[in-house]
């Protein structure tokens, strides 16, 4: 298991029955095989005036956090689709609404980074400030605003933030921001340089390796340079010394535009974006963890045409989407985002309420204990109530185990 984004931490639950559903699982079955079996609609907050969209991330307990306008919103409970303002951004650190660029939660769930967008800062603050009852105001006293170039980001630990950035028409790069440094003089050295294209996505595995991409080829007619969607891996030892994207690192795959890169709890790499020139768009690609590990350990290439190695997900069903993605460690779902809508697809077997990778007596007992409620985990068909239809779905998968 490679991804630092797979670490689970669970918030206290309101009732014993719900607490049972949210038990930490030590199972290691592969979520990859269940993705795409079905999708549910996810309600996104309304885009605020002055913003181009809504940035989204997931807390360790499974609740969504979002940002648009000058507000950070928090989902009331897992799967509620109710987003309440939990913090506002003061004019002292941001004078105009966020574009936004990115929203990412640190591995331990203690810190949040918001990329406000073009010519705007990266704002870092403690997750503990989020409060829907009495929303905090983010100011220079409780948040740090770093004037650094940014497109996408991933936390390395609770202090260091890896960021992709660049200027239009110029080679992109990756920096590592020390979020405890002085915002007026940030420590933000370039660690990966000379990406012959636009900024792409970024992810970190639990060995500290950086995965990043060419988001849009600057020189498609120049042989020997990277192309849109090229994904490379750079070990901790490599990027710590400074590397050249074009000449260093391990080439993994050419998928979409790789403008989004994120891991699930098994170490599968989820890839978003789209390469319209190559006709590779309209879906999210998921690289199976085993295929990823094989190329890292033995150099055997990933077969991007093999559904066993790379699964394509299209919740719209029409091949038109340009998707972003996030992994929800609280529900084992992939959140797939597009301007046309947000969707979630689960890596769990239908009926596996506690995430232990099998449908068994514990799941049945949990469902019966909260029968007639609106509990997210037990409402298997997501019609708003736990009833006989959900019980029938669970029993239909009785005894089934994840692959």
Could you walk me through the main structural features you see in this protein, from its secondary elements to its overall organization?
There is one protein chain. The longest helix is centred in the last third of the chain and has 10 residues. This protein has a single domain, classed as Neuraminidase (6 Propeller), CATH 2.120.10. The two termini are 16 Å apart. By secondary structure, it is mainly beta.
Summary tags:
single chain; 403 residues; mainly beta; Neuraminidase; five-stranded mixed sheet; 5 helices; 10% helix; 31% strand; disordered N terminus
Q: How many β-strand runs? A: 28
Distance between the termini: 16 Å
Compute the number of structural domains.
1
What would you report as the Rg, rounded to the nearest angstrom?
21 Å
- What is the CATH architecture annotation? 6 Propeller
What is the CATH superfamily classification?
TolB, C-terminal domain
Largest sheet: 5 strands, mixed
β-strand amount:
25-35%
Uncertain runs are 1-26
- The percent range for helix content is under 10%
Highest CATH level, the class: Mainly Beta
CATH third-tier fold name? Neuraminidase
Contiguous helical run count:
5
Q: Can you tell me the overall shape? A: globular
Q: Can you list the strand order of the major beta sheet?
A: 2-3-4-5-9
Average pLDDT metric = 91
Chain oligomer state = single chain
Structural class: mainly beta
Short description:
It is built from five helices and 28 strands. The chain has about 400 residues and is mainly β. The radius of gyration is 21 Å and the shape is globular.
């Amino acid at each position: 298991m490679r991804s630092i984004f797979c670490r689970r931490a669970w918030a206290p639950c309101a009732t014993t029955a719900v607490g049972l559903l949210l038990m930490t699982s030590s199972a290691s079955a592969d979520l990859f095989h269940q993705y795409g079996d079905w999708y549910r609609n996810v309600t996104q907050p309304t885009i605020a005036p002055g913003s181009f969209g809504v940035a989204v991330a997931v807390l360790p307990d499974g609740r969504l956090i979002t940002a648009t306008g000058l507000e950070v919103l928090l989902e009331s409970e897992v799967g509620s689709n109710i987003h309440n303002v939990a913090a506002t951004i003061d004019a002292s650190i941001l004078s105009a609404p966020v574009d936004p660029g990115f929203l990412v939660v640190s591995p331990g769930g203690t810190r949040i980074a918001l990329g406000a967008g073009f010519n705007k800062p990266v704002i870092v603050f403690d997750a503990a400030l989020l409060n829907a009852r009495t929303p905090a105001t983010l100011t220079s006293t409780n948040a740090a605003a770093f004037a650094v170039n940014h497109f996408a980001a991933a936390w390395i630990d609770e202090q260091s933030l890896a960021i992709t950035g660049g200027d239009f028409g110029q080679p992109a790069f990756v920096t590592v921001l020390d979020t405890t440094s002085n915002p007026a003089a940030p420590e933000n050295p370039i660690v990966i340089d000379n990406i012959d294209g636009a900024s792409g996505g970024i992810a970190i595995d639990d060995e500290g390796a950086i995965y990043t991409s060419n988001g849009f080829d600057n020189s498609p007619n120049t042989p020997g340079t990277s192309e849109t969607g090229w994904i490379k891996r750079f070990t901790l030892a490599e990027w710590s010394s400074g590397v050249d994207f074009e000449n260093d690192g391990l080439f993994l795959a050419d998928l979409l535009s790789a403008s989004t890169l994120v891991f699930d709890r098994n170490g599968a790499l989820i890839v978003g974006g789209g390469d319209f020139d190559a006709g590779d768009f309209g879906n999210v690609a998921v690289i199976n963890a085993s295929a990823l590990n094989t190329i890292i350990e033995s150099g055997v290439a990933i077969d991007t045409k093999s559904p066993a190695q790379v699964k394509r997900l299209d919740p719209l069903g029409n091949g038109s989407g340009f998707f972003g993605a996030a992994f929800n460690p609280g529900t084992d779902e992939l959140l797939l985002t597009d301007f046309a809508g947000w969707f979630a697809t689960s890596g769990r077997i239908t009926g596996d309420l506690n995430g232990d990778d099998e449908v068994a007596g514990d799941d049945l007992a949990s469902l019966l204990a909260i029968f007639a409620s609106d509990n997210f985990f037990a409402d298997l068909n997501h019609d708003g109530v736990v009833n006989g239809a959900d019980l029938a779905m669970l029993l239909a998968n009785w005894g089934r185990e994840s692959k």
